[in-house]
Amino acid sequence: MSLNIQPFGARGRGLWRAVAALWIACLGLVGGAASAEPFRLIVTHLEPPLLPNSVMDLAQSLGYFEAEGVEVDLVRVQQTPSAIAALKAGEGEMANISLDALLQLHAMGDDSLRAVVSPNTSLPFLIAARAAVASPEALAGKTFGIGRVGSLDHALSMRVLAEAGVGAQAVSLVALGQPATRAQALAAQRIDATTMSVGVWSTMPDRDGLHVLVSPEAYFAAAPLVNKVNVVPRAVLETRPREVQAVIRALLRLSRDIAAEPDLWVRAMSPLRADVGPEALRELVAQFSGSWMVNGGMNAADLLRTRDWLIETGELSQAVVVAAAPDDLSAWVDFAPLDAALRDLGVAAGADPVAR
Q1: Strand pairing category for 172-175 and 143-146
Q2: How is the chain split into domains, by residue range?
Q3: How far is CA 225 from CA 298, 303, 310, in A?
Q4: pTM assigned to the model
Q5: Is the pLDDT higher at 214 or at 7?
Q6: Quick check: do 10-122+225-345 and 125-222 share a fold?
């Protein structure tokens, strides 16, 4: 694929959207109009998150979906199980869910969904600690807050600590629930360290006496796993392929524009998240510099590595591996819509390599 990076300024984006919308409308007259029904995208957050995943919300508020000729309605639910239930009930055409949940479905014999894109491959986690804990090794004998035993943050954090030479038995685990609750416990010095997202860390009202023990870059390097993907039912891939591709193109264009102009994210998020000040937003977007999925986040090697890690940790049965072709992703991934978008837009340089 050829390299074709076209970031737009504000006026350029507006002109491009108008031209693109007219061009797509003409295509509809020639080749048959797109579905009159809105394309419903199910997201697992109730407000735009302080994460690169926010491109799904911003593609709607900034007109990127409209510029691609697709009308998108966001359906908001809490957590992956609700998103899957809504998708299965026909209440949406695409959903952002955890990869392990998709693989669990596949392991149980349900092959109705396919991963097609990942707007935010991995949550930008970090480990924060009290100032007295100067290094990961110093966590030995200390308390470490987790969501619950077996939760994603627990499994990932134990892998990160193991890479730093700290065994799971060396720390005392305290199950506290959601990241915000764990952050409050850390600030109150009820625990010595915990994992949280960059967003939670940046918006903590009081970080006195605390510091980042393991940076987001070091965390991901120790646990380079795919966390979330956008899935589409096979029936939708067959009946509404143009809209699936249009949604993907919009997410790619916006991710590339933000990567090229980070302040675009700050400006777009400010009216949607009035609870977060502009300085905090700027601090966040600086942390996200390598996190925008400019090529769709569907690296085959990363997907396979994540599947194998889930099997190794006991989260998944070996049944998810097709015995005849263990490296064949076609049972739960469809690269075709993303590859069509990449043919249209070109492959962008950045920290999102394309590999099939």
Answers
A1: parallel
A2: 10-122+225-345, 125-222
A3: 11, 8, 10
A4: 0.79
A5: 214
A6: yes
Mean pLDDT over 231-245 rounds to 98
23 pLDDT exceeds 90?
Answer: no
Q: How far is Cα 202 from Cα 196, in angstroms, rounded to an integer?
A: 10
Task: Give the span between the Cα atoms of 39 and 323, in whole angstroms.
Answer: 36
Helix spans in the chain (H):
10-31, 55-61, 64-67, 80-88, 99-107, 152-163, 179-187, 198-202, 216-222, 234-239, 241-260, 263-269, 278-287, 300-312, 336-345
> What fold characterizes domain 125-222?
D-Maltodextrin-Binding Protein; domain 2 (3.40.190)
Q: Which amino acid is it at 174?
A: V
pLDDT of residue 72: 98
Q: Choose which CATH entry (3.40.190.10, 3.30.750.24, 3.40.640.10, 3.40.50.620) describes domain 10-122+225-345.
A: 3.40.190.10
CB 233 within 8 A of CB 325: no
Task: Give the model's pLDDT for residue 47.
Answer: 93
- Amino acid at site 51: L
Separation in Å, CA 215 to CA 91, 135, 172, 193, 201: 38, 12, 21, 13, 11
How much of the chain, in percent, has pLDDT values that exceed 70?
88
Higher-scoring residue by pLDDT: 331, 267: 267
Best CA proximity match to 188, nearest among 200, 205, 171, 173: 205
Using alpha carbons, select from 183, 215, 222 the residue that is nearest to residue 201: 183
pLDDT, tens digit, 9 for 90 and up, residues 183-201: 999 999 999 999 998 888 9
